[in-house]
Amino acid sequence: MASDVADGGNQPPRLVRGLRHDPHHAPELLLLHAVPQLSPQVRRWHASLLRRHPQTDVDKLAAKIIRRATAQARWDGGVTGSSFYFGMPPAIASLYCRQVMTVLQIAALFGYDPTDPARLVDLLVIQGRHPDAEAASVALRALGATAGGDGHHVLNPFTALRHALRQVPGMVGMRFNAFRRGGPVNGMLSVAKVASYLVPVLGIPAWAIDQARATRKLGNDAVAFYAVRTGPDPEFGVLLPPPLKPRTRRLYTGAVVVLGVLLAILAAVLPLGGLTERWTVLVFAELFLAVTLGRLLWVTRAGG
Predict the structure, then answer these.
(1) 165: Cβ contacts below 8 Å, ≥ 6 apart
(2) What is the pLDDT of residues 28-60, one digit of tens each?
(3) How many CB atoms lie within 10 A of CB 169?
(4) pTM of this prediction exceeds 0.90
(5) Contact 184, 178 (CB under 8 A)
(6) DSSP labels for 212-263?
(7) Mean pLDDT, rounded, for 54-82
(8) Strand partners, 5
(9) 3-state helix/strand/coil string of 31-85
(10) Who has the most CB within 10 Å: 149, 198, 263, 278?
(11) CA dihedral (138, 173, 66, 220) positive or negative
């Protein structure tokens, strides 16, 4: 439950410190800190939904949530696949948060508290990061010990960042290994994604389709996961960090706005390339950036 957040001396690792000490578990660390910030608004959404539609059909509403998330993933995937490199980080962050929130919403529809630490375990299994709940819970419980253990080798910041960034594509469902498996559609998408580095325009539809497919699959996997579950959540001994305080959330919002302004300035100053006039490319780039940052702020809005 929400009361299972960490307190006392047995706290989960802080995000930056954890990534520095244990970058190979970046997916678990990011999820550990993302869920407490996203789950309260999911719980409020679900409570409001029950008040307005107490007899809602779970399967129909889950399908609607997946369709909406899939449509939103097309935008973030299109920005990620464009040659507008300044817009890629917020687009990937927005896509990641939306995917996590989609699973939390589906869990809530099936009667499972989105703020319960068990959702961390569920998410890691649904994402395919771990084969079962036991393996996922073991990895989560080890994060604090690994990040803070005495004598544990600490990588320099740049090496740790490189190890963590390598895992970002897998966290949002990006795949390059579909040449040998996954069928002809996945094969063509993989070819298109590789070719997009030579022909940037090709990357927009390729990544848009790919991320839409990945988000739809994640949502369907979540429905299948919770549809067969019965009984209450088991106790995994996993602790959640507390949600951000209002002041910290305001600082976060301000930091995202400042980052957006800096990226907009860089986009205006540095050459972006493209197949048409620079002012046209710049207008679209600034529009992509504004909408993507707005979507990121919306999906991570206050949920305390």
Answers:
(1) none
(2) 888 888 898 899 889 999 999 888 888 778 999
(3) 13
(4) no
(5) no
(6) HHHHHHHHHHHHHHHHT--SSPPP----BPPPPPHHHHHHHHHHHHHHHHHH
(7) 87
(8) 240
(9) HHHHHHHHHHHHHHHHHHHHHHCCCCCHHHHHHHHHHHHHHHHHHHHHHHHCCCH
(10) 263
(11) negative
